[in-house]
Design brief:
It is a single chain. This protein is mainly α. It has 10 helices and no strands.
């Protein structure tokens, strides 16, 4: 079992890693802007599930296969880059059209409960850098012969810390949604985030392992 100090240290590292502007940060930000805090929280939940999977499979050694295989790493990296670029292109097309009709409450709830969750989950699971991150981090908090309960505890700590940060981000952005949903502001945000997502996807695709 992890000590209180280890739990706090692990949670702090996870939060700091989650705060860095990357694919997860961008999809939560855009979903919160487009459809409000419910969608942002749904996206955060999807990312948290992805984090739980990465932490758990890393702790039991499966993720090491991905990091050790250049071919597997490249395939996951390219699929993730394409998916990220796809989301970015959609944002750029929305900015070009500039036709932002108010989303109904029912549509916003549906988006928040399914589409945003799926985006968050896929964005996280299709990022092989998550495997590398957890492979470097997890062994520091596991004993030589970890128990199943200890492994599960570590995965839960990582998940809760990640979810706490991205939920906070979703609520913060959602509270300012009345500003972000103005047509001019929304077009600027879509253009900026779309460009950044496409650029990030291209960078991920072309960078060496």
């Amino acid at each position: 079992m992890l000590s209180t100090a280890e739990i706090l240290t692990l949670a702090g590292v996870i939060v700091l890693g989650s705060m860095s502007p990357g694919p997860d940060f961008l999809v939560v930000l855009r979903n919160s802007v487009v459809s409000g805090r419910r969608s942002g929280v749904g996206c955060a939940a999807g990312i948290a599930v992805g984090v739980f999977v990465w932490a758990l499979v890393t702790a039991i050694g499966i993720a090491g296969l991905l990091a050790a295989s250049a071919e597997a790493y490249t395939v996951v990296k390219l699929v993730g880059a394409i998916y990220l670029a796809y989301i970015g292109i959609r944002a750029l097309l929305a900015a070009r059209r500039g036709d932002y009709r108010p989303e109904s409450e029912a549509a916003a709830k549906q988006r928040g409960s399914f589409v945003a969750f799926r985006q968050g989950l896929l964005t996280n699971l299709l990022n092989p850098k998550c495997a590398v991150f957890f492979i470097a981090l997890v062994p520091q908090f596991l004993p030589h012969d970890p128990s199943a309960l200890g492994t599960l505890e570590l995965a839960v700590v990582c998940t809760v810390a990640n979810l706490a940060w991205f939920t906070t981000l979703a609520f913060g952005v959602g509270a300012l949604r009345h500003v972000f949903t103005r047509r001019r502001v929304r077009r600027l945000l879509d253009a900026a985030m779309g460009t950044f997502m496409v650029g990030l996807g291209i960078r991920i695709a072309v960078e060496s392992n």
